[in-house]
């Protein structure tokens, strides 16, 4: 069974061809199996602009940077990236 994203976890998310696979903070609440849904995420950037919309989070496996709230976007259901590092959910402290 695949793990399900929960609010405050950081997942590796495929954001399309030009945006690459990158860490993203999950903002959505848990959903039930029978519900149609999208997940709200905020992508991580390694090139912050130092604006008030960015949250700097330091995790051992995460490169220096920030989660930029202005990059909020809905994405289809997330699945763990087994076989790549980091993979699956990473809880924020």
Low-confidence stretches: 81-87
Major β-sheet, in short?
7 strands, antiparallel
What proportion of the residues is helical, as a percent range? under 10%
Strand/helix succession: EEEEEEE
CATH topology: SH3 type barrels
H/I helix tally: 0
What's the rounded overall pLDDT mean?
Answer: 80
| Number of DSSP E strands | 7
Radius of gyration: 13 Å
- How far apart the termini lie comes to 25 Å
Just name the CATH architecture: Roll
Number of domains: 1
Structural class based on helices, strands and sheet pairing: mainly beta
Describe what you observe in this structure:
The structure is a single chain. The protein has 93 residues and is mainly β. The protein has a single domain (9-91), classed as SH3 type barrels (Roll), CATH 2.30.30. It is built from no helices and seven strands.
């Amino acid at each position: 069974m695949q793990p399900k994203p929960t609010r405050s976890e950081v997942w590796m998310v495929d954001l399309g061809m030009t945006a690459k696979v990158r860490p993203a903070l999950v903002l959505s609440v848990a959903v039930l199996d029978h519900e149609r849904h999208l997940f709200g995420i905020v992508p991580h950037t390694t090139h912050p602009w130092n604006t008030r919309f960015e949250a700097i989070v330091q995790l051992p496996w995460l490169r220096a940077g920030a989660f930029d709230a202005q990059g909020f976007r809905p994405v289809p259901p997330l699945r763990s990236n087994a076989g790549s590092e980091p993979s699956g959910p990473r809880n924020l402290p």
